[in-house]
Amino acid sequence: MSIFSVFTLLGGLAFFIYGMNQMSHSLENIAGEKMGSIINKMTKNRFVGLLMGCVITIAIQSSSAVTVMLVGLVNSGIMNIANTAGVIMGSNIGTTITAWIMSLIGISSDNVLIRMMKPESFSPLLAFIGIVLIMVAKKAKRKEVGNSLLGFAILMYGMMLMSGSVAPLADSPAFLKLLTAFRNPLLGVLIGLVVTAVIQSSAASLGMLQALSLTGGITFGMAIPIIMGQNIGTCATAILSSIGVSKNAKRVAVIHLSFNLIGTAVFMTLYFVLNAIFRFSFVDTNITPMGIAFCHSLFNIATTALLLPFTKQLVGIATRLIKTEPVKQVAFLDERLFETPSVAVSECGRLAVAMAGLTRTSVEKAVDNLLHHTEENDAAIAELENEIDTYEDHLGSYLVRLSGKGLSESENRTVAKILHSIGNFERMSDHAMNLAEAAKEMSEKELLMSDEAVAELEHLQEAIREITGLTMDAYINMDVSLAEQVEPLEQVIDLLTETSRRNHIDRLQSGECTIERGFVLGDILNNYERISDHCSNIAVAVLEADQDTYDPHEYLKSIKTMDNPRFRELFTRYQEKYLPEV
């Protein structure tokens, strides 16, 4: 084996890891933004958690990505530590699919159908289909399918390069002599652990082992300890991701490590005790890539069957090893979720929905407080405003950093919608605070509005409650039909505030109102008007998020000239409801 064979081996490993990352990232985008929330909602039962961990790992082809995602979800306070054990076990089973796919490289036959199963036969076709989809497809999901197919083809090309580079070793006496060291099971575990920890990919280290097995020099007795060591080594990614996180998040990494350490200790002991008694004939038999895939699957399934009933005990071990610390401020959203951008986008959306709910409460309290002022309402509105400010600060900065993480077109659109909306939520809460201050001023100065002014404000209050409710429901449910009702109501609110201003001037001229009360009334009207404007902005963001079926720019253009029949109908309805005399 020459130095050029070493170069080819390293190049093959590079292609393999790049292809795996490309395929994993694309499959994750195809899986969609709901992945994190699905995991969190469906993992309270350990058996469901096991299934979800297995399915999601098969879907995104990366157990490391799933584990890092769990660390991020726990560190953000989104997921309970007790719900992670089943998912971790499921991800270990799900990752075995990769080894089975790679084992196809060892197939040999003259049968056309069987030859078509060989990677060198179908990978070029997948690469061609993938590049065509990338170049021709208009929808983001189809482009991601193309990226995943191309990533798989690159992965398999890397596997073939590795296999070809080590082929000369089959006739090398020095290599055969070196292999005798692998007969030491503890050394085999250590080699599997170190190699996997260094390259941070159990799939890649398994691929290297499968490539070496094609030389005919690797036996079952050599491979089994290495496979067990690889399962321990894959915990390195989770351990690294747990640096600088909360105690609970560190416990996720400990559960992952404990699972593989206990499994290795139990089955290594069982394997050697039984081998000493029964002298297994297969131990000295040469192993094939398919045999490696089988041993890998058997180990992970058996370890899961052994430890699944003891998930509480695994959590208990992690809790005892990582002692409780005084409660500290947890990251609003953990940056480790950047490893799975679709999950990060989903969690940002969830927090934006929570922010929308807080904003609705803030505005409604401020509206009620205006004519029925209490100090308790003032305090509640101020507390809501501070909370909404915190959301806007943390979520806004997180989204800006997330936007540079190679998001899909759909995810970029979602991030833009959230960024646009949270700014409007925050300003609506500012206007709610302004209304609270106006109510406080009226109470302290005992400023009483005229009956006509009170009646006008009550009309406005009803309209503000309706437009706020419409807007938040439209945003939370991404409901275009609700969003298109906001702009007609916003324009009616503009008419209401303008009418109220004109009526106030008339009352001022007739002596029915004072300038001081007029200043307060003007502030109230301005804040109502601005709240409705922000509602309109949020509704437009909802329409823009649904551009595939709705063109918001054409809609906004048409309403300016009243050319939109639906807009005219809604405008007339709201006008009759709130301004029947106009």
Concise overview:
The chain has 582 residues and is mainly alpha-helical. Helices cover 78% and strands 0% of the residues.
Give a written overview of the molecule:
This protein is an all-alpha fold. The protein folds into two domains: 3-321, no CATH class; 340-578, Methane Monooxygenase Hydroxylase, Chain G, domain 1 (Up-down Bundle), CATH 1.20.58.220. It is 78% helix and 0% strand. It contains 26 helices and no strands. The longest helix has 36 residues, at 409-444. It is elongated. The N and C termini lie far apart (92 Å). Mean pLDDT is 82; it is low at 326-331.
Features:
2 domains; mainly alpha; 26 helices; 582 residues
Integer count of domains: 2
Number of strands: 0
> Distance between the terminal alpha carbons, to the nearest Å?
92 Å
The low-confidence runs, each spanning 5 or more residues with pLDDT under 50, are 326-331
What structural class results from the helix and strand content?
mainly alpha
Helix content: over 70%
> Main β-sheet: number of strands, strand sense, barrel status?
none
Rg is: 32 Å
**Cα shape:** elongated
State mean pLDDT (0 to 100 scale): 82
Order of helices and strands: HHHHHHHHHHHHHHHHHHHHHHHHHH
Tell me the layout of helices and strands.
Elements (H helix, E strand, L loop, with lengths): L2 H29 L3 H8 L3 H15 L2 H13 L8 H11 L1 H7 L9 H4 L3 H18 L3 H27 L6 H6 L6 H15 L2 H12 L6 H14 L1 H7 L5 H32 L10 H19 L3 H11 L19 H31 L3 H28 L6 H36 L6 H27 L2 H4 L2 H25 L4 H31 L6 H9 L4 H14 L4
